Amino acid sequence: MPHGESYEPRNRFTAWMDARLPLLRVMHESFLTYPTPRNLNYWWTFGGILTFCLAVQMITGIILAMHYVPHADLAFESVQHIMRDVNYGWLIRYVHACGASMFFLAAYIHMFRSLYYGSYKPPREMLWILGVVIIFLMIVTAFLGYVLVWGQMSFWAATVITNLLGAFPLIGEAVKEWLWGGFAVGNATLNRFFSLHYLLPFVIVGMVALHIWALHIPGNNNPQGIDVRQGKDTVPFHPYYTVKDLFAVSLFALLFSYFVFYDPEALGHPDNSIKANPLQTPPHIVPEWYLLPFYAILRAVPSKLGGVLIMFASIGILFFLPWLDRAKTRSARYRPLFRQFFFLFVIACLGLGYLGAQTPEGAHLILARILTFYYFAHFLIVLPLLSVIEKPLPVPKSINAPVLKGAGAAAQ
Amino acid sequence: MRKRRVRFFAAARAAAAALLFSLAGGSPAFAAEGEKPQLLKGAWSFDGPFGRFDRASLRRGLQIYREVCSSCHGLSFLYLRNLSEAGGPELSLDAVKAIAADYEITDGPDREGDMFQRKRRPSDRFPEPYDNDQAARVANAGALPPDLSLIIKAREGGADYVYSLLQGYEAAPAGVKLDETQHFNKYFHLTGGVLAMPPPLTDGIVDYEGEGAPKATVKQMAHDVTAFLAWASEPRLEERKRLGFQVMVYLAIFAALLYFSTRRLWLTAHGEADEKEESA
Fold first, then answer.
1. What is the pLDDT of residues B88-132, one digit of tens each?
2. CB atoms < 10 A from the CB of B246, how many?
3. What Cα–Cα distance (Å) separates residue A11 from each residue in A6, A14, A18, A200, B205?
4. Does domain A286-389 have CATH number 3.40.640.10?
């Protein structure tokens, strides 16, 4: 809510502050008394989990930057120095490396949740658009960070991805060389990637602040996808959702810890334990798992420029989602047809992820093309069509009725 | 309503499982250039959540590295002092000093501005077998012996791969032509089995000394040197798994407490609203 009246300064200092810079008031109203729908399920805890992920990445990243050397001759060695000689360096680096994967896992779940419950629909279009900006920044940041290790996969991923920009007519070559700072991926590239990898997380923080702001104006969507009508529909954010979110974060941290402590290399590629060698191309260049679906889309198109455009479009199309899906009913619970197509879409995304790791030949290539087609068809054909032909089920009249009735029934 | 919820959760769980599966299995494998043979599975003491290195095995592995591998392969990320550190072979500092003194290093400049040779100390790195890559290639018929400090992490299959490779030499099958500098190893699948490294281990190539030492068979030596290299790749493995267990237990208790807090809290939330409804 934009301007609640729930905050009362407790003493003279806070009253003095409140008249000058109402920071405490804003915090109080945003994170303590903020009215939150009472029926949010555990899929809604991923916002809190993502905040946790961002904090973990920034804290570990700042510490890593104290020991890391962004130089082509020393970067790989300095990573080993962190792993072997820095106190708990192995812990900080593994948390940061696995943390990237965990961050994307949570972000993707968060996005699918939004798709399922129609959280991108009016009045939350800005909230959704900011979210798409954040995932785009996350992808860029993760790619830049992966290059910093300066292993074989780092170097060749950087080469492949920056070469994509060369596909653009006229300006492509110039942009590519400007980005490289030379005529190939080299020390200049690594050095500027380090600078940008340090910069972008702060831009993400800014976007997250806007994202939360854009959330707090209309308030949360909820599993029923209906508007908050009365006071009974909501509970204050604290303690109800602070405690619940913290519980979810602790479960997430258990999964996170499993990877950090017991299988830290599972999400990486063995070739990245070999120092970058511009004279030797690895047999298969693949990105990290979280970028595989986009990689599959890129390679599904026979033309280089076409592939690049389609890959960018696969994220770009998300910006238009609120206007492609015109159905009034938000939640998939009351949209039986949409629900089935939603799961088809999830399967298509997972399938693209699988195909991104395979060599693009034969059946794999055909399947990648079919799934790429479905990815776009889902947004451009299925959703607009469904908003016309689908007959939604009746939605409940209020948020609190089924919840409270359910609780009463359980008590009896 | 409730039924639909249940169905949704079942579907969502399946999707999550599929996602996790694609995480675990999605790390891309080398597409087979020819048939990819099944790797031999070593019995590694350092596997599993409570895995530890076998000190005696690491020490034997160090012996094999020094007497066999080190003539061609470096261990450039390791310091000699690492041999005495916790979680590794844990040699005494005197033993490490003795090993270090076997190798020389160029130091300097001294007061006269001259470089000089001195014996290595525990604070020095392991010596490099060649002055530079070109020298290494000349000595090995054009092939560059890789550094072994990260070899276990840098190969698909990890320890099992190195363990298999060391035991995988055999006569070249019909159709594979070798010149006199080439050898055939069925696990070296990237080039169809042809590699420049001659079989490094033969029975009894090193003497395992001390009481209760096993016989130096190829299999035993492959096991020991692979364990040593696994430690070299991941010298903090024991510390990591020990801390991991503490963290997991702590988080499990923390999560359980938060679970009960959440339940308790939400019971009162719905209860209060019930009362309000009745009084309204």
1. 999 999 999 999 999 999 999 999 999 999 999 999 999 999 999
2. 10
3. 16, 6, 10, 39, 82
4. no
The mean per-residue pLDDT over the stretch A153-159 comes to 96
Which residue in the block uniquely carries the two structure tokens 């702060």?
A202
Question: Quick check: A64 and A198 in contact, CB under 8 A?
Answer: no
User: Could you tell me the sign of the dihedral formed by the alpha carbons of A181, A184, A186, A192, in that order?
Assistant: positive
Residue A259 makes CB contacts below 8 A (sequence gap 6+) with A98, A101, A102, A266, A267
A173 touches chain B (CB under 8 A): no
CB contact under 8 A, A239 and B251: no
Tell me, yes or no, if A86 comes closer than 8 A to chain B by beta carbon: no
Q: What is the pLDDT of residue A179?
A: 94
CA distance B244 to chain A (A): 5
Best residue in A251, A334, A399 to probe B by mutation, most B CBs within 10 Å? A251
Q: Which residues from B are below 8 Å from A232, CB to CB?
A: 273, 276-277
Return the residue matching tokens 């054009």.
Answer: B142
Cβ–Cβ under 8 Å, residues B42 and B163: yes
**Domain map of chain A by residue range?**
38-272, 286-389
Minimal C-alpha gap between A13 and chain B (Å): 32
Residue positions counted in chain A:
412
Question: Coil, helix or strand for B197?
Answer: coil
- Which chain B residues contact residue A293 at CB under 8 A? none
**Cβ–Cβ pairs < 8 A, chains A and B:** 141
Express as a percent the part of chain A with pLDDT over 70.
96
CATH number, span A38-272: 1.20.810.10
The pLDDT of residue B35 is 63
CA angle A103, A297, A383 (to 5 degrees): 85
> Is B153 near chain A, with CB under 8 Å?
yes
- A197-208, pLDDT tens digit by residue? 999 999 999 999
The verdict on B247 touching A (C-beta cutoff 8 Å) is yes
* Cα gap B36→A283, rounded to integer Å: 15
> Among A186, A187, A191, A354, which residue's Cα sits nearest to residue A286?
A354
Across the interface, whether the CB atoms of B258 and A94 are under 8 A apart is answered no
DSSP string, A46-95: HHHHHHHHHHHHHHHHHHHHHH---STTTHHHHHHHHHHTSTTHHHHHHH
B32 or A53, which is more confident: A53
ipTM score? 0.91
